[in-house]
């Protein structure tokens, strides 16, 4: 019963998606021809290109952001490590001090 409900839900979603996809004023071939001619008419249609085309590779890959995040995490981890070392060393000193008295 549960599988039938899932199958019916899947079929309904497939039908809905199919209706949405087929609701076009032109066929897929006509659309492809239109856009090919459009690009030819407008000399490559540079106004439709993504702004990412003009970025340098390090800007496109966000190397500066990744470096900043990794550096921040590294500094945080080093600070936590230093804090633990200070806390553990003060604990050892207090134990030695207690033993001496």
What value does the Rg take, in angstroms?
32 Å
- Uncertain stretches: none
User: Order of SSEs, N→C?
Assistant: HHHH
> How helical, in percent, are the residues?
over 70%
- Work out the oligomeric state of the chains in this entry: single chain
How much of the residues is beta strand, in percent?
A: under 5%
Shape descriptor reads elongated
Tell me the count of domains: 2
Count the helices. How many?
A: 4
Structural class: mainly alpha
Q: What is the tally of beta strands?
A: 0
Average per-residue pLDDT, rounded, comes to 88
Biggest beta sheet summary = none
How far from one another are the termini? 78 Å
Any overview of this molecule?
The protein is an all-alpha fold and 101 residues long. The protein has 2 domains: 1-49; 51-101. Helix content is 76%, strand content 0%. It is built from 4 helices and no strands. The chain has helices at 2-22, 28-41, 57-60, 63-100. The chain is elongated and about 90 Å long. The mean pLDDT is 88.
Task: Describe this structure in a few short sentences.
It contains four helices and no strands.
Task: Write out key terms for the chains shown.
0% strand; 101 residues; 76% helix; single chain
Q: How is this fold's topology laid out?
A:
Layout: H1 2-22, H2 28-41, H3 57-60, H4 63-100
